[in-house]
Amino acid sequence: MSDNVLPEGLDTFPKLLARNAVQWANVPAYREKEYGIWQSWSWSQASEEVGALAMGYVALGMNEGDYVAIIGRNRPYLYWAMLAAQAAGAIPVPLYQDANAEEMAYVLEHCGARFIIAEDQEQVDKVLEIQDQLPNVEQIIYFDKRGMRKYDHTQLNAYEDVQAEGRAGHERLAPVLRERQAKLDENSTCVMLYTSGTTGKPKGVVLSNTNIIASAKASSEFDNLSAGDSVLAYLPMAWVGDFIFSIGQSCWTGFCVACPESPETMQADLREIGPSYFFAPPRFFEGLLTNVMIRIEDASPLKKKLFHKFMAHAKKVGPDLLDGKPVSTADKFKYWVGDLLIYGPLKNTLGLSKVRVGYTAGEAIGPEIFEFYRSLGINLKQLYGQTEASVFITQQPDGEVRADTVGVPSPGVELKIADNGEVFYRSPGVFVKYYKNQESTADTKDAEGWVATGDAGFIEESSGHLRIIDRAKDVGKMADGSMFAPKFVENKLKFFPNILEAVVFGDARETCTAFINIDLNAVANWAERNNVAYASYQELAGHPQVLDTIQGHIEEVNKSVACDEMLSGCQVHRFLVLHKELDPDDGEMTRTRKVRRKIVGEKFHDLITALYDGSKTISTETEVTYEDGRKGAIKATLELRDVAVAPVKKAAAA
Q1: Can you tell me the distance from the alpha carbon of 394 to that of 215, in angstroms, rounded to the nearest whole number?
Q2: Which end of the chain is less packed: N or C, by CB atoms within 10 Å?
Q3: How many angstroms separate the CA atoms of 278 and 230, rounded?
Q4: Domain span holding position 48
Q5: Residue 535: which CATH number?
Q6: How many CB atoms sit inside 10 A of residue 548's CB?
Q7: Which class for 654: exposed (0-12), middle (13-18), buried (19 or more C-beta within 10 A)?
Q8: What is the mean pLDDT of residues 397-413?
């Protein structure tokens, strides 16, 4: 599908970078905050940095077609490391920086990486720990020199030394680079990104230049992105979304990529940068809103009254103003006053005052949360995507933004719904193959290029918008034959600020039950305001008043689920609040924080049994992994509670 998709001369990233270095020579391309100060590099400077590193790679022996692993947090130097790999004819493979050594070993061995670019000592140590499992690794290049002086440098090189060698050998190495780049075209492999491994081992998704550049071009034009825009790069570099925003769209449009000083300073850095283009998963927006509401609870009565008064007005007219719909002059004036007193300062505090286009994806976002941000005048929209699609499958056009859909097909994307309700798509962004996995490639992508998403959904006839119900593999049947769609209920539960995560069980059973993770930030604030003493997450999670609150939330969700005749059987009958947070380090979630449902079911089998046998309490012991990699165990006695179930309103549903 790559014929004539890309303009001539702009079908590889070395070509895009060369264009940008001329067309936007002095326009900021990258920013990074270091030691409290923002550093900036123009496109011409970035091009020189990438060129020097690429020549250094060649001097070290990097060959065309080599796989180059990139490990670390979002930094301009690591984005340059990926672009330099492409310039040398190699293939970048970014890894999750918080992956443990064992997870890294699988990916590094699977792709056969010869070169590893590691941000600092921590990442180098992880690689050295598993070195005996990685016979292909020949060179480790590290950026941050702190703590590295006494290491054996037989296979270690400092990033700046590699660049220095590249610059010193310019006359000899530049022709080699030019020769390699001349061989690259739209069908050359651009990047290999690993899936999060929700159901098994991660798969290496091979994406071509056409896949990434065509998707970047179409999505940039969809939202009128330009060199004047800016984005904050803070999401994992191994995730396809970060690659498309921070490499694909950035190189296509020439906009600036800003990197925060650290994950801990991300929110403060977001306020300082004030990006015009922003992406965050629902969890981020939920967390922000939770913090806002916590602060409002602590505000003076006057401020609290003003906030609720103007937010009620914003909810009424804000989305209409954003969509350009007619609003009375009086309402416009009241909104203007609200913007002066409440909305403007709040957006500024959140770092979202300059956002022209904002997206959320990955999970369903609560309608109330979604409407809250749009009522403030923030153009927050939803998209639906996958690694295999180079992100974009559907997007919401301006003026057609709704909380209950994921939008219309992105430019160049075709959609179809199979007889069993599974969503299929095809587009120029469709991946080439799964690396070393012909069987999975054939299972996912057919001969005509149609890709199975694994999600169940339907297209609205009236609007053409796609609505996603659940993961197709998770949709089952209750014992009475009614539909079981756990994600539908879980997403409703997670709309409450007190609930961080929910896992619903019920396939082939007579009733549904649920595990709940409380949001420690929100619940701890409630505890402090109500003088409730606690010493740990576990103690707070088992507090009777917390259980009462969660029970109330579930009963409210049951009333909502009862209104959907098709899914009314999914009401939760019993629940427990888990004694620990589900954690990627314990294998219960992926690195992108998707629940590994099967593993959770196996690991907490005793708790599920107790939920269904009518037990009131259960004592359990669970193995946990600490931040330093040590293993330990948590013992707890959990209270199991029954929940009121709402009557099904068949007449209302009809």
Answers
A1: 12
A2: C
A3: 8
A4: 13-276
A5: 3.30.300.30
A6: 10
A7: exposed
A8: 93
